Amino acid sequence: MYSVTIFTFMLMFLATSAEDLSCPPSNSGTTYVKLKDAVLCNYDSSVRPVVNHQNATSVSFKLILKYFDFDILTSTFSVDAWLSLYWRDQHLTWKPSDHENIKNIYLYTYQIWTPDLSVYNLANQGEDPELISTIRCMVNYNGVVLCVPPIHMDVLCVPNLSKYPFDKQDCKLRIGSWMHKGEEIDIVADKSVVNVDDLIPNGEWEILSHSTVKHKGVYACCPNNTYPSVDITFTIKRLAGSHAASMVIPVIVCVILTLIVLSLSPVDKERLIMSYVNILCHFTQVQYVAWQLPLKGDNMPLIIIFSRDALLMSLFALLFTLIFRNIMQRKTMPPGWISAIVSGIISCKPGQMLLLSDYSAKEAAAAKGEEDGATIVNSNTSSTVNTQDWELFGKLLDKIFFVVYILTYFIMIVSFLP
């Protein structure tokens, strides 16, 4: 009798426990609420949504890009987008025929299981890396869940400014599960993983291309598990119009100013004055460019190298102006080799056109030692002709210097072009 009593008590206890574990009936009269309560009954949002825990949950995503920006000063690539996610939750299924043919319901992300997709290369590693915020998701009767959370990502992207302002940058988003292994969550990137149809144009950058690569994520620390991630790489190009107007054009103007200075005669005071002004313009340009760009890394911008070299060339232009000015104003007799060089140059028609444009034909004949029917008997005239060799020699060096500068600037400009 005692055993029967104990057995009866145990049956009553189990029946009461089973009744407590069952879901209470919904008091609402709407079918939608009854369906939602039934679906969420005994649902655990912390458990991965598979019946067999050995099966991986496939999570597909697409990035609907809305806006992007790139800050070279902070090396930050910013993206505003909608992240379209869908996966199958085997615990959220029902028969539409049992619920007035309702095929979709809408649940908040905190009510259901969501993948912990995160950004690995955030600019601020102290921020929460998870991408899914609190929003409503659509759940289909067959368990397919669709969530489209709006996201903002600031990721690290170290710029290569060597071709500034005609530079291109490659910036990467690395997305993966924060805690789950690849054997638990399989990240699937759609073929057209990035959609730019609704992209708001950026006033400084444009997207040239984008590519997607999935990494298996095999590491030496965990050879038996994988931690996959998806890399989305954007190739962006700077819209260089305003930058060219504010930086490139002034450099070209400084180059032209240097050539104008060198086209003047070294003995002219105007050339000396313009040389000082030219150096000041170059120095100001270098300071302005250096102020605008972050001077970090191994890849120095070519425009800074160009401006620096142009400044040095303007300094050399002043130095050689003073040297040529001193040579051309000498009154002593020149060495024989200088007279021989001058005589050889002006013995041909191109040399006369180059060096003797300011002299008479008689002085030219006297300088090259040719007799043209006129006998030079005045010693003062002979001395003047000999001292003119200094002036002609200085003028020759100045012309050679001018040609060298043109060739040097041409090489510099070609190397700077994108």
TrEMBL record:
Domain Neurotransmitter-gated ion-channel ligand-binding: 35-238
Cited InterPro entries: Neur_chan_lig-bd (IPR006202), Neur_chan_lig-bd_sf (IPR036734), Neur_channel (IPR006201), Neuro-gated_channel_TM_sf (IPR036719), Neuro_actylchol_rec (IPR038050)
Membrane-related topology note: Multi-pass membrane protein
SUPFAM superfamilies: Neurotransmitter-gated ion-channel transmembrane pore (SSF90112), Nicotinic receptor ligand binding domain-like (SSF63712)
Keyword line: Membrane, Signal, Transmembrane, Transmembrane helix
Keyword Cytoplasm found: no
Record's protein name: Neurotransmitter-gated ion-channel ligand-binding domain-containing protein
Organism this protein belongs to: Diabrotica balteata
